[in-house]
Write a structure and sequence with these properties.
InterPro entries: AAA+_ATPase, ABC_AA/LPS_Transport, ABC_transporter-like_ATP-bd, P-loop_NTPase. The protein is of the alpha/beta class. About 35% of the residues lie in helices and about 25% in strands. It folds into two domains: about 180 residues, Rossmann fold (3-Layer(aba) Sandwich); about 80 residues, no CATH class. The strands form two sheets. The protein has a six-stranded mixed beta sheet with strand order 6-7-8-3-9-10, with helices on both faces. A four-stranded antiparallel beta sheet has the order 2-1-4-5, covered by helices on one side. Helix 3 packs across helix 4, helix 3 packs parallel to helix 5 and helix 4 packs across helix 5. The structure holds adenosine-5'-triphosphate (ATP). Adenosine-5'-triphosphate binds next to helix 1.
Amino acid sequence: MVHLVTTLRPETAAALSLTGIGWRVGGRTVLEDIDLAVRDGELLAVIGPNGAGKTSLFNLVTGLTRSSAGRIELHGRDVTTLPAHRRVRHGLGRTFQTSSVLPGMTVAQNAELAAQAAISGPYGSLKPWSRIGARARATAAEALERTRLSADATRRAGSLSHGGKRKLELAILLAGQASRPQQILLLDEPMAGMAVEEVPELTALIREIHASGATILMVEHHMEVVLGLAERIAVLHHGALLACDVPSLITENPTVREAYLGEPL
Ligand SMILES: Nc1ncnc2c1ncn2[C@@H]1O[C@H](COP(=O)(O)OP(=O)(O)OP(=O)(O)O)[C@@H](O)[C@H]1O
């Protein structure tokens, strides 16, 4: 098993740090001995063949599942045993592979709910729609503007195109994390199912969100998008971290190329 420690520039602290992370489920090892540090403000992409463990890794980082081994830190604070909603308070937010918008509500209401839930906290969020405040409305409006959805604010979310729904997921994420000073955003295959013509706009949005200071960890199969956005790329294969480096070195890495069985990266 390759044991790989990714080094950090001394001047930048890790926003997210994984040390010796492992996950066993149903008698099998899905992830083993993962050491990975994402710098504050970095955009790091995680790639790997189907079944490599990318989504499982996201689930461990967000607290949806609990790791069997290792330690997870957010901005230097140990969150390994914290439940998902407590990790959110440390600026951690996530989108999912499949669309998670509320289709019967308007675009604005989707973003407002996320903003109000963040303001009200875990218990207030049980019925956040009962009292959407002015602050939540303003936060949601800003998130819609950033994701170029303002013109669609009064539309039913279910009537958006697939690309529109993915933009709304980003807006929901931004609205929910707006008050957190150090955002760590996990994007799980943001381009999945997108029409080719929708990819450049979403890529530009992610670039802008990153440029505004957010730390981004992104799983993505679309290599053009990964190579265009990522500062570093981590490669997962059979639950192990094969390599983590700048894009130019990853695409030349013989071990990585072998893992993809000669498929072009
Ligand atoms: N709850 C679970 N119980 C048993 N096996 C699981 C569970 N969750 C994931 N696995 C297995 O772990 C492996 C990694 O799955 P995971 O979904 O993390 O891979 P992935 O890299 O995200 O794949 P894809 O690119 O297809 O989304 C797979 O073989 C999967 O079947």
